[in-house]
Each structure stands twice: as structure tokens, then as C-alpha cells.
Amino acid sequence: MKNLIILLFILAVTQAQAQDGYTSSPYAVEQQTNLSERNRVIYHQQQYLYRQGQSLYFIRMDLEWPRFLSYSPMTVLQRYLTREIFGVESESMETAREQYLATKGERLDRVPDEEGLHSYYIFLSVNEMEYIPNRYVSLRVISRTEPKDTAEQVVESHKLITYDIAGDQLLTTRDLLQKSAQHTDRELGIELAELLLMRTDTDDPQWVIDCFPGEMCLMRAGAYYDLNLYQGNDDYHALTIILNDELQHFINKKTKQMLKAEVADRQPVPVAYRPWYADTAQVYSVAEQMPSFRGSNEELYKYLSDNCQYPPIEEALGIDGRVVVQFVVEKDGNISSPTVVAPVSPGLDREAVRLVMAMPRWQPALRDGLPVRTIVSLPIGFAK
Question: pTM value?
């Protein structure tokens, strides 16, 4: 078993006097309204309760939303994701989310105690599956609505996609595979189907692949494949991996060229920007007394070391590096609005965000003697 070590890179603890008389933090982030962003992946985990007439909506969102990657705003991807998740097309996740929730009626803080209500359980998810700088990002997109107390059927969508950052284009399974690998009446399609069925760890002949060729996205070790399997009235989604050596037999020439092509670093381009933490309360980057982890930097290091869970895929592939997470320290010291601005891999990024969100309350910043919301930027390094 490999040793797992988490390293915390603390910026200099010295504070410099700002021109307005406030001190800047080693974690401070400059606020701008028009800037070039290299990377920003927004992590939004929230549960909502809404009511419209006799309908109750229990909504759970688990979103890992790539807003910028390799200086690209990925406009085509933004419009696709907002359409798939929120049913509206927008270049802003925040705007689309607000429009979606507005269709659900009035927000509640507790479940009404009355009869005759119909409940809908809604799960909306975007998960990063892979990110290769300047080349591509792969995502799993899930939308599920499960009615209760009605005759309506479950509505569910599972999709895997790859976004070609260099080419600014969305790639689905049909864009990645050879045409003959997309049909089970062709020899290559039969080979792919047999390979995928072997990966489900079942030899039951009644299991079949529904809607072949299914959903697929690229990863550095090969490709993820989502199988919609069923037996009788039961069905489930099984996520499996095809390794690179196997994958080369099935992907088309265009995909092979994309994976081998030399890609240059993208150049910064100023963009109109809406802060990911935007709401009614102001957020500061400097204050008389900046926020701090309760205790010392050593206590913060100990917390991270004691609580780190190295992701198994990254461990198997030997992936390590430094993830930078930005977040807001609220007036009460709680942590909110996590976002990754220096990603390494989906698993390490997700673990860094988990560690940040599980931290005990911080000591909030003080401005004019009163607690205020502030932005913190925390680099967390993973090594073996």
C-alpha cells in the first residue's frame, strides 16, 4: 500500500499594509468585474424545497461546474449544461439556476403539514470525470425526477460528454467511436458490446445493453463508459473503464488525431464576469483582521493530514499535485461557495473541496470591528 502524504503550501504569513489602511491577507483574492480567468470550477451542493400549487419539489443539486478552463469560457459547453440541467440555455450557471428555481414556485423552509400534496424528488448532477489542460474536459451529467403520490413515471437522463477545449466543440459517443463500433449488427460493434458486458462482472445472459452504443467520455487512461443495463423491469447504470490499448481499436481517426495533436497554451482573453459567490451580501478581500483557521497554520496542516482520503483512481495512476481552492468565510466563520481555480484532476479537486467544506468554523474577518464575509484562497498539495 502506497504511503499517502498531503502537503499544505502556506503562503507567507506576513501582512502588507493596504492603501486604505486595511491589511491584506496571505489568502486574499483581488475582486474584479472584468478579467481573464485561467481556471474556475464551481462546486455547488445544495438542497431546496419549493411549492407550486399542490406540488412539492425536493431538489438536490450536486454540481461541479467548469466555468473557465485553460482560459476558455467554453460557451458551447455552458449552453449545453444549462439546457440539460435547468432546461434553459444560458452562458451563466447562476442565471440558469435562478430561472429554473423561479419555475418551481415559492421556496419553503419546511415541509407543509397538510394532505393532498404531490411530491417530486429532483436530482441534478454534473461531475467532472477528467481534465487535461488545454485539451479536453469530460463530464457526467445526470437529471432525475421521481414523482411520489402520482401516476407519473420517473424521468431520468444519464449522459457522458467530452468537451474539446482546443477545438471548442462538444463530443458525444457518436463523435468519438468508429461508425461500425456503434451498431451491434457490425463486427466491431459486437466486439465492443462483448467487452463492455464482461466489465459488468456478470455472466447472466439475460443482461443486455439498452440503447447501444451508450454513453462514453474520454479519460487519460482510456475512456469511461456508462451502461444502461436491464433485466425484466429492473434497470441500473454501470460505469466502467476501457483502457487505452483497448480503446484504440474502437475510436475513429478524428478522435485519435485530437488526442495526439500538439496543443498550444491558450492566451488570456478579458471576459465579462459575474462572481460565483454573488448574492445580496458584499464579500471583501481585505480587512483590518483577516479570517483565520481556529488555531495555527500547524493546526490547519494537521486537520488536512488527518482527514485526507486519497482518491483511488489518482492513487492507481500516480497522480499528485497542488489544488488551489477559493471559498468565502462567512460572518459566522462557516465556509461557503467553494471553487477550484488551480485544478489537478477531478478526484484530487473533489477531495480538496471536501476537506475545505468539512473544516470547523474559521475566525471571521473584522472590518471596522464587525465580522464581514471574505474570500480565501487556499493551496492544498497532494503527494505520495
Answer: 0.86
